[in-house]
Amino acid sequence: MGKIGIYLLANYPSQEAFLDAVRTCDRENIDFLEIGFPFSDPIADGDTLEKACCDTLRKYDIDDAVASLHDVQRIFRGKIYIMTYANIVYGPGIEDFAKRLGAISGIILADVPLRETSFFEKTFKKYGIPVIRFLTPESRDADIDNAVKGSRDFIYFVSKRGTTGGEFSLDEETRAKIGRVRERGAMVFLGFGIKDREDVELAFHYADGAIIGTRAVSELSRGKDNFRNYIGRLKKELHPQGTKPGGILL
């Protein structure tokens, strides 16, 4: 069984609802959280997450996101990753930003290409924070080699071309590339478009984990009860009575 993680946007749709969702994920033994820090131009995000970012930025700023991250660190017992964009990190200075985060398992910079990762890594490394490497269906063998060689955690494999959301599928070429990454000894977590039990099971067949983002945020936008029911139902479907629990990644 693979790992399960859930993406949540910091303080969306409100700080109270966000932290309640974190508690739900902790109770349901989600393996890790990917906490998004909202950005005004989230180029990797589809319509749902882009709108969520815009709505959040009308009420909260980066200081509020950092404060809520520290609440998450007190609530959630699994791994915690931050997902954001380069300007959020670079604006205040990479070192100052890293200092404020405290203990996290890694940072995901959605708009930083593989060849520019080292610029950020040299600072985050001082604080014990890996920069998570991305691969995509367009990644070449040389990209795969570079990503695996420098990886200190999992490889985030974007399952499809385009932005978050939409339908989840894996073409033959993408499946082969995921296999090459794993053959080189790296863990692969799949993201983009994963939303239900069928998607997660397909992801687990080819990779080490699945990342659920847009669907999780959509359910939370409909209310805390909707989110609780969604996460609870998903875990129950994946781990019926008598099976050993595993996890899901956002």
Walk me through this protein's architecture.
- The protein has 250 residues and is of the alpha/beta class.
- The protein has a single domain (3-238), classed as Aldolase class I (TIM Barrel, Alpha-Beta Barrel), CATH 3.20.20.
- Helices cover 46% and strands 15% of the residues.
- The chain has eleven helices and eight strands.
- The chain has helices at residues 15-27, 47-57, 62-75, 86-90, 94-101, 117-124, 141-150, 172-183, 197-206, 214-221, 224-238; strands at 3-9, 32-36, 79-84, 106-109, 133-135, 155-158, 188-191, 209-212.
- An eight-stranded parallel β-sheet has the order 4-3-2-1-8-7-6-5.
- Strand 7, helix 9 and strand 8 (209-212) form a beta-alpha-beta unit.
- The protein is globular.
- The protein starts with a strand and ends in a 12-residue tail after the last helix.
How would you summarize the topology of this molecule?
Layout (H helix, E strand, L loop, with lengths): L2 E7 L5 H13 L4 E5 L10 H11 L4 H14 L3 E6 L1 H5 L3 H8 L4 E4 L7 H8 L8 E3 L5 H10 L4 E4 L13 H12 L4 E4 L5 H10 L2 E4 L1 H8 L2 H15 L12
Parallel strand pairs: 1-2, 1-8, 2-3, 3-4, 5-6, 6-7, 7-8
